[in-house]
Amino acid sequence: MKLHEINHIPEQLLETESTGLEALLGRPTLIHLQGRQEPALFISVLMHGNETTGWEAVRALLKRYCGLQGDVDLPRSLSVFIGNVSAAAKRLRRLDNQPDYNRVWPGCGTPYTEEHGLMQQVVDSMVDRGLFASVDVHNNTGLNPHYACTNFLDNRFLHLAAMFSRTVVYFLRPKGVQSMAFGEHCPSVTLECGKVGAAYGVEHAIEYLDACLHLSEHPSHPVAEHDIEIFHTVAIVKVLENVSFGFGGHKVNLSCADDLDRLNFRELPAGTSFGYVEPGQGIGLEVRDENGRDVTANYFILDQGELRLQTAVMPSMLTKDHRVIRQDCLCYLMERYSQAVSE
After folding, report:
1. Does residue 219 have a cis peptide bond before it, meaning omega lies within 30 degrees of 0?
2. Contact, 206 vs 60, CB < 8 A?
3. Cβ partners under 8 Å of residue 326, min gap 6
4. Where are the beta strands (DSSP E) in the chain?
5. Could you give the CA distance from residue 89 to residue 109 in angstroms, rounded to a whole number?
6. 278 exposure class (CB count in 10 Å sphere: 0-12, 13-18, 19+)
7. Fewer CB atoms near the end CB (10 Å): N or C, the chain?
8. pLDDT value at position 194?
9. In sequence order, which residues have a C-beta less than 8 Å from that of residue 234 and are 6 or more positions away?
10. Angle at alpha carbon of residue 216, lines to 121 and 76, rounded to 5°
């Protein structure tokens, strides 16, 4: 899969919704635009084809800086990577024959596919050009606040994250994500902009990306304590492949409450119920820590068929979207992070 790389805004691009990008561009595309400052801000969108806020924000942002003659006057050079256009055409996270576009970046350690090669081309191109910062824009499906993620406890990264939200998530797994690959070369963040279709998610992303274009440097001093709350993702929760699941009392192996995603970003005490498991299914879940170890028994117990937390923890990205749960996970588990960070 050869990267489509261009130095202009194609005609009709900024009028094209995510579902029309495959027809217009043909394949994943990296666009480089010259600005008044160097090096470039790198933005990636549509790593998951059904998460459209990033593309809507980039469209609106570029329209701000486009003149009547089609010229672009940007405060800083900008490179935009438009990712899974095939999945976007069908409003899906990914197609069944595709890997997850945000799990195949350099450093993932998984068997090679053509998508791995594509992401390596993107990184190589941007490193050759020089990088100011990297921003990967996402949505999520459950009830979550807007928050930023980082894979590096470095004050420059934390300032970039806190510009978006005082809620910041630090994680080391899953690997192969864009922010981890680019974080080896420049400050990088992932933005989680709430549910698809929410106007505020697009507005928030536009203003953040515009602010990044106007940054002249990355502060290296610590972020003020009252401006940031850091949560560390300690485990990923997946439903076992042979376990059927549902929400709201359906006849399945694992039955969760219809409003389970209300528990996102709430510090839950031990004993909190996640649902009920039919006899013979065990816990029905697999929980792995950031080193890939099975730690299911550390986090969940069965109490007369009721699935309960074994320890206090905070979930994120709890979702009721069956396809997302099968393709990714049920949720992540987090703890507050209070250690000092590097300067």
Report:
1. no
2. yes
3. 239
4. 4-6, 29-33, 40-45, 78-82, 131-138, 147-150, 167-170, 188-192, 229-239, 245-247, 254-256, 273-277, 285-289, 300-303, 306-309, 314-316, 331-336
5. 29
6. middle
7. C
8. 96
9. 289, 290, 313, 333, 334, 335
10. 50
> Side-chain half-sphere of 332: how many Cα atoms within 13 Å?
21
The whole-angstrom separation of Cα 168 and Cα 166 is 6
For the question of whether the overall pTM of this predicted structure is more than 0.70, the answer is: yes
- Cβ(89)–Cβ(22) below 8 Å: yes
Pairing of strands 331-336, 29-33: unpaired
Q: Which two tokens stand for residue 279?
A: 């006899």
Written as six digits, the tokens of 151 are 């894979």
Cis preceding linkage at 269, omega within 30? no
- Residue 15 backbone dihedrals phi, psi, to 5 degrees: -100, 0
Q: Is the pLDDT of residue 341 over 70?
A: no
Domains of the chain (ranges; CATH) run 4-227 (3.40.630.10), 235-336 (no CATH)
Q: Is 137 helix (H, G, I), strand (E, B) or coil?
A: strand
Q: Are strands 254-256 and 273-277 parallel, antiparallel or unpaired?
A: antiparallel
Q: What is the pLDDT of residues 42-75, one digit of tens each?
A: 999 999 999 999 999 999 999 999 976 668 999 9
Whether the bond between 174 and the residue before it is cis, its omega within 30 degrees of 0, is yes
Q: Determine the Cα–Cα distance for residues 285 and 292; give it in Å rounded to an integer.
A: 15
Beta bridge partners of 281: none
Query: What are residue 256's DSSP bridge partners?
Result: 247
Q: Cα Rg for the chain, rounded, in angstroms?
A: 20
Token representation of residue 138: 């996402």
pLDDT digits (tens, 9 = 90+) for 281-315: 999 999 999 999 999 999 999 999 999 999 999 99
* Helices of type H across the chain: 21-25, 53-65, 85-89, 114-129, 155-162, 178-182, 199-214, 296-299, 322-327
User: Rounded to an integer, what distance in angstroms lies between the CA atom of residue 219 and that of residue 155?
Assistant: 7
**Residue type, position 32, single letter:** H
Q: Is 14 exposed, middle or buried (0-12, 13-18, 19+ CB in 10 A)?
A: middle
Longest dimension (CA), the chain: 70
